[in-house]
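Morning!

This is the sequence you dropped in the shared folder:
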Amino acid sequence: MPPRALTRLRSICLAFPESHEEIAWGAPTFRVKNKLYAMYAEAGNHHGAGREGVWIKARPGNQALMVRDAPTRYFVPPYVGPKGWVGAYLDDAPDWDELRDVLRDAYRMTAPKTLLAKRDAPASETPPKRARAKSTRAAPGAKRAATEPDAEARLAEFLDKYLPEIVSFTKSVRAAMRRRLPGAVEMVYDNYNALVIGYGPSERASDAIFSIVPFPQHVSLCFLQGATLPDPKKILQGSGNVVRHIRLESAATLRRPEVAALIDLACERARVPIDPKAPRSLVIKSVSAKQRPRRPKGL
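The structure's back. Tokens below.
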């Protein structure tokens, strides 16, 4: 008989349209159109390493947020952790409603857009055919997409879900980052866990160097390639394999010598540097259908 948690996990994943299970690497994996979005990890093998769990594909920035906010429930899994996947423990009364939302988000990241369009369309409608999207991966020296006409308005809508003081705080931090990083592409992910505004040399999430993340009561600056940065002042927080962060007191925190030095060093050591002469752009990358509350409870 399969473990109870696996039975529950299977019932959630297989309820998604055209999702199927396949045994790979000795474990049940869950896929859509044969593309992997979740994998069960048994406690008794090297995947689980003593604890039953599930590895889930996640949007950029979500792994660090989830592990930081709930380290007893989420972890950085081996093998796929460096790619941004998040692990969830299944052996200690997991929140199945939240896991369903996280798994749904992973499924929607992976499923073909045509399948999602059919699923989301009203029963009486046939989704219109869409032109094939061009790749956003820029070749060296290639022009990048300009800011979408309504990107600033959409970002303002995302921010309006927060308390006014957090909106003002985030806008001040964003203005400071834009001044420090001329030529950066701003990538916006209105994720399940939080709004994320990333900064990098292109629209590729894997090239992003920083992100600012507003929470219900504070704002953080994430160093997305920060795990190997020297930090003599011990101001970087986090223990994952890739990301570190600083909880900001105000936008002025960015001007503190030790913080400014880390920002400069992160830019110098980035896998792909930001070209300060490149045109600035703002791109809305994704919006999660279901989201955690952006304000404290009761407000």
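Headline: The CA atoms of residues 19 and 40 lie 15 Å apart.

More detail when I'm at my desk.
O.
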